[in-house]
Amino acid sequence: MSSRLCEREQVVEHPCEQIAADESPEDVLRACADLGNRQAWDRFLRRFHPLIVATVVRTVRRYTLDSESVCDDLAQDVYLKLSASGAKVLRNFRPLYPGAVFGFVKVIAANVVHDH
């Protein structure tokens, strides 16, 4: 991860690593439940990292803790939360509608900041 995490809110995709058009965000999340699946986590980072960073930064600013190192640490904590207990959170997620995974990830990111 870059040390300039708080200032970035988008990630540039590598041309050789395009996300499959037919792979839904929910499919990516389910694949990440296998913590050893590095390719799934690479796809997850490309798809969700900008959302995680933006959510962390916005939530941190509510508390006026706007520090780059705090944002970096909290963004990393989101990934720790997602992978804790063998990715139990990812395995147990059941979307109620298409795209629900984006709200799910945002809530986890915001809660990590609130808990901090």
Tell me what the structure shows.
Helix 2 crosses helix 3 (68-92) and helix 2 packs across helix 4. The longest helix is centred in the middle third of the chain and has 25 residues, at 38-62. The chain has helices spanning 25-32, 38-62, 68-92, 100-115. It is built from four helices and no strands. It is globular and about 40 Å long. It is mainly α and 116 residues long.
Overall 3D form: globular
- H/E element sequence: HHHH
Query: How many extended strands?
Result: 0
Mean of all residue-level pLDDT scores: 81
What integer value in Å does the Rg equal? 14 Å
Portion of residues in helices? 55-70%
Instruction: Outline the low-pLDDT stretches.
Output: 1-19
Give the termini distance in whole angstroms. Answer: 20 Å
Q: Name the structural class.
A: mainly alpha
Total helices: the number is: 4
What proportion of the residues form beta strands (DSSP E)? Answer: under 5%
